[in-house]
Amino acid sequence: MTQTPAQIEAALERILPRVDKPGRYTGGEYNQIVKKWDDIDFKVALAFPDIYDIGMSNLGLMIFYDLINKHRNLLAERVYSPWTDMEAILRQQEIPIFSLESKRAIRDFDLLGISLPYEQLFTNALNLLDLAGMPVRSLDRDASCPLVVAGGHACYNPEPMAPFIDVFVIGEGEEALLKIIGMMRAARHLDRETQLRYIAQIEGCYVPRFYDVSYHDDGAVQAITPNQPEAPPKVLKTIVPVLPPPVTDFIIPFVETVHNRAPIEIMRGCTRGCRFCHAGMVTRPVRERPVAEVLDAMDKILESAGYEEIALLSLSSSDYTNVLELTKQIGERYGRLGLSISLPSLRIETVSTQLMDNLGGSRRGSFTLAPEAASERMRRTINKFVTHEQLLETAREIYKRNWRTIKLYFMIGHPTETMADVEAIIELARAVLFVGREYHGKKASVNVGVSTFIPKPHTPFQWEAMDAPENVVAKLERLKKKMRGPGLRLRWNDPKESAFEGFLSRGDRRMAEGVELAWRKGAKFDAWREHYNEDAWNEALDELGLSPTFYTHRRRRIDEVFPWEHIDVAVTKKFLAQDYLMSQAQETRVDCRDQCFACGILPKLKELRRETADDAWACPPVPTRKHHNSQ
Question: Is the pLDDT of residue 578 over 60?
Answer without folding.
Answer: yes
